[in-house]
Amino acid sequence: MRFTDIFIKRPVLATVISLLLLAMGLRSIGSLPVMQYPFTENAIVTVTTTYTGADPDVIAGFITTPLENSIAQANGIDYMTSVSAPSTSTITVNLLLNYDPLKALSDITTKVNAVLNQLPKDALQPVITVSVGQTIDSMYIGFYSDELPINKITDYLIRVVQPKLQAVNGVQNAQILGNQTFALRAWLDPVKLAGYGITAAEVGTALANNNFISAVGRTDGQMFIQNLTAGTDLTNVNQFRKMVIKAQNGAIIRLEDVATVDLGAQNYNSSVSFDGRTAVYIGIVVAPSANLLTVINEIRKIFPSIQEQFPQGLSGNIVYDASLFVHSSIYEVIFSLLEAFLIVTGVIFIFLGSIRSVVIPLVAIPLSLIGAFWIMLILGYSINLLTLLALVLAIGLVVDDAIIVVENIQRHIEEGQTRLKAALLGARELANPIIAITVVLIAVYLPIGFMGGLTGALFTEFAFSLAGAVTVSAVIALTLSPMMCSKFLKMGDGGVKGRFMTYVDNLFAKLEKSYARVLSATFNHLSVVIFFAIIILCSNYFLFITSENELAPQEDLGIVIAQVTAPANASLAQTQLYANAVNDIFKKFPETDHIFQVDGYQGLNTSIIGMVLKPWDERKRTSNDLQPLVQNELDKIAGAKVAAFQLPSLPGGGSGLPIQFVITTTETFDKLNIVLQRILDKAYESGIYAYINPDLKIDQLQTRVNLDRDKISQFGLTMQDLGNVFGSALSEGYINYFNFVGRSYQVIPQVKRETRLNTDQILNYYIKTSSGASIPLSTVASLQRQIVPESLNHFQQLNSATISAVAYPGISMGKALDTFAKIAKQVLPQGYYIDYAAQSRQYIQEGANLIVTFFFALIIIFLSLAALFESFRDPLIVLISVPMSICGAMIFISLGIGGATLNIYSEVGLVTLIGLISKHGILIVQFANDLQAEGQKKLDAIKAAAAIRLRPILMTTAAMVLGVIPLIVATGAGAESRYNIGLVIAMGISIGTLFTLFVVPSMYLLLAADHTKIAAAEHLDEEESLG
Questions:
Q1: Most CB atoms within 10 A, among 265, 815, 834, 846?
Q2: Hey, CA dihedral for 993, 994, 1000, 1005, is it positive or negative?
Q3: Contact, 813 vs 839, CB < 8 A?
Q4: Cα gap 555→608, rounded to integer Å
C-alpha cells in the first residue's frame, strides 16, 4: 500500500491535515454543552387527587381505580404505581426512557379528563405534573428568620422569589416545602355553636354565601360606559369576624361569636429546617429535557440579586446543590486525563530512549484528542463524564499507533536505511495493520452504539467518542507521524546514540533473545499450551458466576439521606422528635457540612433528613464509608424505622431506597399481608439486609363512626346532613377563596384543636334536628375502633406490597434481589407475582444487555478481520487472546478487589479489552504473513514476527496499563466508576499480553495457512495469465 508515500514526500500536505484537525477540534470544544451524563429523558407523570377527610378505602375505590383504568390506556408507560392514603390519591406513571414527556402529559391529561364525571362530587380536580423522578430535588434554597413567622416568609416567597426562580429557563418547578400558605382560619367552638343552636355545616354554608365573588358587568350608555364592581366578597380578617351567620328574633350572631378568626396557614402538616433552624425551602425541580448544570448555574447567577431585596430579618442560603458533584467529577476526570498524558510520556521516553522519538507520539496524543471533539460536535454529543472518561482511555490507545510507526521506522534506520527510505518502508509495512487495528476498535464499539435501554443511552457517546479519537489517531499515524519520522529521527547505528538509548536497546536485545528461547521451548510443547488455553477459557464461566453483580457502583455523591418512618398514628410533633434525633446523630460526624430536614414528607409520619457532606478534598471518609456507620447509630433510635441510603449514581434511578421488590396480586390486602409477612421473616433470616420496610402496613388505628339510620330518620335528618357536619367540623377542607392584597387564599372552618384531641370528644358535638332542636351526636352515633392499612397501594393496577430495603455493605444489588426472588419462589402461592421498581427495575432491565453486546462485538471483529486478512483462520488466531485477557480482568472482579463488581462500567471495560488485546495479535499475524510471503517458512516467520513485535507490544501495553493508573488510584467525586473500568483494562491487558506472547504464536503455528505455497501459486497464476 503506497498512499502513505504521498504524505512523506509532501510534508506540507501532512501538516495541513493535522492543523485542520487541530483548528476544528479547538473550535468544537467551545461549542459543546457540558453535562453530567449524555442526554436522557427520565420523566414521571404524577396525578394527585385530594378528597379531604376520606379514608384510603374510599380513595382507592372511588378515585384511584377509575383514574388508573383510564391512564393505563396512554402510550409510553413503563410502569404505573399508586398510593391511596387518607385524603389523597397519588398515581405515579413512570415513562419509558427518552419517551417525550410532553406527549405523555397530553395523553394522560386526556385520559384523566375522560373519567372526571366518575369521581366524588367533593373531590378536588386531579393535579397532573411532569418531573424527573427523584427522592430529593436538584437544589434546595433555605429561607429563615428570627423575626418573621413562617406564613409571612411563605407569602413573600410566593409573591417575590418563586416567580423569579420559575422564570429561569429549564426550571420545571420551584416548589415551596415546609410552607404555611396564608389561609383564613375560623376555629369553631362546639360549645358556643351548641349554645346558639348552630351547626358547623351552617357556618360553612354562611361562609360560602357571604363571601361571594361576583362579576357585575358594566353600564351601557349611548356615549359613555362604566365598569361595575360589587363588594359581595370579604377581603380582610375583620370583615370575616363581623360576618353574620344567623339573624334570629332581632339578634345577630356573627362569626366571631362562635369562632376565633385569624390569618393562619392552609395546614400544619409539614415542617422543614436548615441546620436545626425552622425554615421554608424552595426545591428546584429541573425539567426532564433541561441540562442540570446550565439551570443551576443560572440560578446561582440571579440568587445574589434576590438576596439583596430580602425584607429585614429574612436570610437565605443554598442548602444543597446536586451540580457540585458533577463539577467535581468533571474536574477529577480532566485531572486524570493530564496525569495519564504525563505517565504515557514517561513510558514512551523509557522505551524509545530519545527525545526526538518521544516528540512524535507526544504530538499525536493532543491532536487525536482535540480532533475527537470535532467528531463529537458532528455527532451532536456533549462534554460529559463518560465522553471525558473515553478520552482518558483514548490516551493509551491513540499513542499506540504513533509508537508502532516510530519504532518500526527507527528499526529500519538502524538496519542502515536513510531516514526517507526508512519512513517510506516503515509506513508501507504498517498501513495495513494500522487500518486493521482501527477497524477492530471501531467494530468493538459499534454494538454498544446500537444498544437500547439506559446502557445504550449512556455509553453510545462513550463508545463513539473513543472510536472517533482512534480514527483521528489512525489518520495522524498514517500522515503526520511518518513525515515527522523522516525529518526528526536520529540517523545511524548505536555509535551515534546517547548512552541511555544504547542501554535501552541492549536491554530489549537481551529480552528479545530470552523471549525467542522461551518461545522455541513453547513450540515443542504445543499440546500443553492448548490444554492451558482451554482451562482458561472454561475458567471464565466460573469467574463470571462468582462475581458480584450490580448496575453501577455507588458513587460518593456528597450526601447521605435518612428516611424516618414513625408509627402509623404519629402526629407531626412525634415524627419531629425522631427526625431531630437523626439530626443530632448527623451533627456528630465531622464530615457533615449542612443538614436539611423535611418533616411530613409523605404523610405526617415520615421525614427525610439530608446530611450534606463537606467537599471531597476536605474529608478522608467517603459517603460509602459513612453510610454503614450512620445506619448503626440510627438503629439505636427506639420507636421509629430509620434507613440511611444514598442517591442513585445513574440517571433515571427513580426515588426511594435502592432495593424495591414488588409483590402483586388480585387477592385482598389482608391475604397479601399474610404472604408478605412470610417473605419478610425469611428476608430477616438471610441476614444480608441492613434495613427492610414494606409499604403495606396494616397497623393504623382508625375509628369508624357507626350511625343509627333509623334514629337519624326519626329526627328528620339525612346522611348528607351528618356528612356535612363532619366535613365542616373536622376535615380541614376549604369552603372558598378570599382576596387578600391581590391574591386569592383559602377559607377553612374547623373546630378548635383542643376539642378534637381524641375520638370521644366527637360524640359531644351537637347536630340540629329538622324541628330546630340541638342534640349531641352520641344520640345517633357510636364509635368503633379498627385496624386498617396506612395506605392501599397498586402496581400496574394490581394490589401490591413493595418491600424497600438497604443491603449491608459488600452485598451487591444483584445478590440482594436474587435473595428476594428465591424467597418469593419458595413462599408465593398461585396468583401472586413479583416485579421491581426504581433502581432495582433498572438493574433487572439492563442486566444481560452488555453480555449480548460482548458476543456481538466478537462476531463483528471476527468478520472485519476475516475481510482484512482474506482468511477465516487468521481472525481465530488473533481472537484467541480475548478469553485470556478477560480471564485476567475477571480474576480481580471475582475476588472483589477494592470493591470491584460486575457492573456497566466494568462490562464496557471488558468490551474495550477485546479491541485492545486484538491489536497485539493483529501485529504478530500480519508480520508473520508478510515474512512468509517473502519466502520464510511458517515456523521461522512466526518466531521472527513475534521477536520483532515484542518491543512495540510491550510499549503499547505499558502505555495503556500505566495510562489507566490515574483511574485506578482516583479519589473524590465519581472515583468508583473510574476505578472499575481502570482495573478491568489494566489487569486484562497485563495478564492478557503475557498469554498473547505465547498462545498467539502457538496457535499461528497450528492454524495459519502456509503463505509460501499461496504466494508461489499466485506467482504461477500471474505468469500463466501474462503468458
A1: 846
A2: positive
A3: yes
A4: 20
